[in-house]
Design a protein that fits this description.
Layout lengths: L3 E2 L4 H10 L2 E4 L5 H10 L7 E4 L9 E3 L3 E5 L4 H6 L7 H7 L5 H6 L2 H7 L6 H7 L3 E6 L2 E6 H4 E3 L2 E2 L6 E8 L4 E8 L10 E10 L2 E10 L6 E2 L1 H7 L29 H19 L1
Parallel strand pairs: 1-3, 2-3
Antiparallel strand pairs: 4-5, 5-10, 6-7, 6-10, 8-9, 11-12, 12-13, 13-14
């Protein structure tokens, strides 16, 4: 018999999380399909469930003195509706690509992160936003950069007794962002490759560039080898700078959707398209 918990306070939720091995559910758009797939292969087991949808305050997007706080229950649809600066345009573009409208209405940004799929549409965008995660347990609170939170294929630094309570995004003045994705069809598709970027510019020159590639490694990756030569370049010329050497850190695989070589070529094309769009 599966136990189902739906606490109405964060303290109660953390107490349950600390005392039991539970599956934390918000939108459930990853957990339930995975459970159905296991059942289809003859594994009917499921951990006890901790439903956090009744916890107050976690569905808010709040502006702070240093940036923005996106609560753990913020859905993709809520993000799309929110009044946010151009810094978030790339993440909003990704929100339109996450499944269909029903999934966008239920699925959460934090759920996309904790699942830690290499093809998670939100991850490269949040890497480019230099986001951090707010984690809580009965032992206290801590903040961890997203780049350190993702430790491998579907693996994170989240402790067994912890929950992600929010995504923290710092300010970057005069910045805008973008997102481009390649799949086998236009909608409802897992990425072959995707690129996200945040560019801050002044007088037509780039003062800061943050770029990330998804679906081309076990974990989505920032591209410091490309970010460095972009700094100081004219934005109108930025699309001419990316080269194959800048993607040397990527480790794409051959699978049913694409070959490793195709993914690497696609990532380079997407980067150029992304920078051209931002210009």
């Amino acid at each position: 018999m599966i136990a189902y918990h739906r606490p109405r306070s964060l303290d109660d939720a953390l107490a349950i999380r600390g005392a039991q091995d539970v599956a934390v559910i918000a939108g459930g758009t990853d957990i339930y399909p995975a459970h159905a797939a296991r059942r289809a292969w003859g594994d009917p087991t499921h951990r006890d469930v901790l439903d956090i949808t009744a916890l107050p305050g976690l569905d808010r997007i709040e502006e702070t003195a240093v940036g923005w706080r996106l609560g753990a229950l913020v859905t993709w649809s809520a993000l799309r509706r929110a009044s946010l600066p151009p810094l978030f345009d790339g993440l909003k573009a990704a929100a339109k690509e996450v499944g269909g409208e029903q999934v966008q209405n239920r699925g959460t940004l934090v759920g996309n992160l904790v699942t830690a799929s290499p093809a998670g549409d939100g991850i490269p965008n949040l890497l480019a936003l230099d986001a951090s995660l707010e984690l809580a347990s009965t032992a206290g609170w801590r903040t961890i950069p997203l780049r350190d939170f993702l430790t491998g294929y579907r693996a994170t630094a989240l402790h067994r007794d912890e929950m992600v309570t929010a995504i923290l995004v710092p300010r970057l003045p005069e910045a805008r962002s973008g997102f481009v994705k390649l799949g086998a069809r236009r909608y409802l598709v897992i990425s072959v490759a995707m690129a996200a970027g945040v560019i801050a510019s002044e007088s037509g020159r780039i003062v800061e560039a943050r770029l990330a590639i998804g679906a081309c490694s076990a974990v989505a990756q920032r591209l410091p080898a490309l970010e460095a030569p972009l700094q100081g370049a004219y934005l109108r010329e930025a699309a001419d700078i990316p080269a194959a050497a800048h993607l040397a850190a990527l480790t794409p695989i051959d699978d049913i959707r694409a070959s490793a070589a195709y993914r690497r070529d696609a990532a380079l094309t997407l980067l150029r398209d992304l920078l051209r769009g931002l210009a």
